[in-house]
Amino acid sequence: MKTSNSTFEEIGKILSSAGKVLIFPHVNADGDAIGSSAALCRVLRKMGKDAFILIEDDIAGNLKFLDDGLTTFDMDALDADVSVCVDCGETGRFPKRADKFMEAPVTVCIDHHGTSKGFCTYNHIDPGAAATAQLIFRLIKAMGVEIDKQIGEAIFAGILTDTGSFRYSNTQKETHLIAAELYDSGIDAATVAQEIFETMRMERLRIESRAIETMATLHGGKAVLAYVTQKMLEETGASMDETEGVVGQLRSIAGVELAVFMKEYGPEEIKVSLRSKKYVDVAEMSSHFGGGGHERAAGFTLRCSMSEAFDRVKEYVMNMAEMK
Length: 324
Ligand code: 5GP
Ligand code: MN
Known about the structure:
Number of helices: 12
Bound molecules: guanosine-5'-monophosphate, manganese (II) ion
Helix content: 25-40%
Strand content: 15-25%
Strand order of the largest sheet: 3-2-1-4-5-6
Number of strands: 12
Structural class: alpha/beta
């Protein structure tokens, strides 16, 4: 059962009365997780608070421009009065930091995943929002803090990545209205877009083409499955975060409704990314495998070998009623 949402005014008050705040984005943080965290962290510091974003893995190269002394790997950076998790709604999304998160006397969750239940003292989960960054924008407004250029660019980065540059079906009128308002804080939208989408290394293009070569098609091309292994990363010199765009490319193929991309993080750790175009509910498919997400973008992790994972997912897709 979902707990009811706290208002941004309530959450704003909790944050305003805190002295030390730790922010927790999910593992393999995407632009929305990092953008939302960076915006909130900057706001809290502006208010004179001790605030850090606690991370457990490296930030993707194309998102590093959002971090300027905001993130730390140090579990002892501070003992927070309030822990805030953003763009995720369960401790399993930040496993190595879960205990640290729960140590704080007050916990807050700000998220837009419909599969999140609300496990914190205060929760604001809005699956209708295209990006968590939109919720952070609303929260900052409720707190009455002025959005400066850097805060604005962090929010814009979150919106841009989660909406596929305003292309995906989650994009709303409000998404555009918020983006428009961010221009008033002096954001350089083109530079943010270039940092995120046009600063690729050659290694990224190489791993993308290798991964796309593994593609198998099902249901006459309506579903496609592809994968990347550690060996492929070694051979191309690419890092796993550089495969992030592959699942979107698979979905962009004409006639494809469902794209599945499987990433071998370790011998028994396969992270699966799902995307759909029009009608397959991938959040439901993810939940079946113990993960979560949105209707058109979701994911889960399987603790088995790549070949076993591939067979299990393929079997599931073969039997999906909506693909027949
Ligand atoms: P991605 O495929 O880009 O990693 O994730 C797509 C969406 O699904 C994101 O919104 C992400 O937060 C969510 N997601 C990915 N993996 C998991 C998972 O293991 N559990 C949950 N609850 N959500 C996930
Ligand atoms: Mn998001």
